[in-house]
Amino acid sequence: MKKIIIFFILLVSFGQIVSGQKKDGYFSIQGDLSEIKTKFKKAVLLYPLPNEYITDTVTIVDQKFSFSGKVPYPTMASIKYLKEEKGASNVPFILPIFLESGSIKINAVDGQLNHIKVSGSSSHNEFERLKIKNDLFLNDVIEPLGKRIKEVSALKDTAKLAELRKLLLEEINRSRESIYLGYVKENPTSVIIYYCLIEGGGIPFSPARIKPYYEGLAAKEKQSIQGKSIREIFESGVRVKPGNLAPDFTLNTPTGKDMTLSSLKGKYVFIDFWASWCAPCRKEVPNVLKAFSNYKQKGFEVLAVSLDEPGSRDKWIKAIHADQSSAFIHVINRKGSINDVAKKYGVSQIPASFLVNPEGKNIAYISIKHHQAFI
């Protein structure tokens, strides 16, 4: 069963300062993929800092590449490998990796793309141990359930399909609580506990599910940059509670102009968080277009907030045209900054939407069940 699980903002921005982290914070990455037959052209490293989101691109020469930078604490990142050939089949390979100061090496050990070895990062070693547990669960439970769902879907048995989808979510949440939140409980000072808290939040993400585990942490962990980020999630849940004023924000439109939410007072505003890479989001566009067509004469606006990565403006614009959604008001989020609207609204999975009334108050939070991508 194809998984639509992607790391970014809330997932990738957590780690913690520990005694094993070198004080200078500098890291270097040396990659060697020479044993892999697939030829790669570029490698893109993406990782967050407290007030910005870094995207670093290098050319791969003879299947070798290198990166360097500085991180204040171990943090989840990703390396995206782009192939030489062009076309729709050129899907990049993405390697999740925990960054920390020191020398990190990436090697292909047996010629298999999925068997890349990362060494030199103790935080990545912890992540790998959890990944092995999660992969076993996916193979033993999720894959068979996914095949069964596909079979029942073909038979158009809607009642059985709903039952199986419910079971799927229950199994995923049970496993995430066991694997990730269980790890937090057993390893409360680990460098990856904040990543585990977010993963343990389940589908749909539930702040209430992780709060007891967060409250069980020592004061030092709670007061760290990452601990405060978790606290922000709980606070955002209060901010966007129905009946409260929707947090105001100003973001750029495709033409570079500022668009402020409060400028739309007097109208019903459907704030829709999405991204060009999120297939479930784009699958919902026809439904949103239909609602917009039915209610636009009654003062209904769609404010589409893109969560595309920095530097992906062309993909964002192309998706708008492809989905025929240019009638919406489009703006793009500013990741890792004080204007990070997704963080302000506590968005950890997309599609996610908020309906705001003419007085600027939240009416409802809308999450599309069974069609969510993690960010």
What report would you give on this structure?
The protein is of the alpha+beta class and 375 residues long. The protein contains ten helices and 17 strands. The longest helix is centred in the middle third of the chain and has 34 residues. Strand 9 and strand 10 form a beta hairpin. The strands form five sheets. A five-stranded mixed β-sheet has the order 13-12-11-15-16, covered by helices on one side. The chain has a four-stranded mixed β-sheet with strand order 4-1-7-8, with helices on one face. Strands 3-2-5-6 form a four-stranded antiparallel β-sheet.
Main sheet summary: 5 strands, mixed
* Radius of gyration, taken over Cα atoms and rounded to an integer in Å: 21 Å
Determine the strand fraction and express it as a percent band: 25-35%
Element order, helices and strands? EEEEEEEEHHHHHHEEEHHEHEHEEEE
Report, as a whole number of angstroms, the end-to-end distance: 19 Å
Number of helices: 10
Strand arrangement, largest sheet? Answer: 13-12-11-15-16
Task: Summarize model confidence as the mean pLDDT.
Answer: 84
Binned, the helix content reads 25-40%
Which structural class matches the secondary elements?
alpha+beta
Shape: globular
Query: Low-confidence parts, pLDDT < 50 over ≥5 residues?
Result: 1-22, 368-375
How many beta-strand segments? 17
What attributes does this structure have?
disordered N terminus, 375 residues, 26% strand, disordered C terminus, globular, alpha+beta
Topology:
Blueprint: E1 26-32, E2 40-49, E3 52-59, E4 64-70, E5 75-83, E6 93-99, E7 102-108, E8 116-119, H1 122-155, H2 158-186, H3 193-199, H4 207-215, H5 219-222, H6 225-239, E9 250-252, E10 258-260, E11 268-274, H7 279-283, H8 285-295, E12 300-306, H9 313-322, E13 329-332, H10 341-344, E14 349-350, E15 352-356, E16 362-367, E17 373-374
Parallel strand pairs: 1-7, 11-12, 12-13
Antiparallel strand pairs: 1-4, 2-3, 2-5, 5-6, 7-8, 9-10, 11-15, 14-17, 15-16
Helix pairs in contact: 1-2, 2-3, 4-6
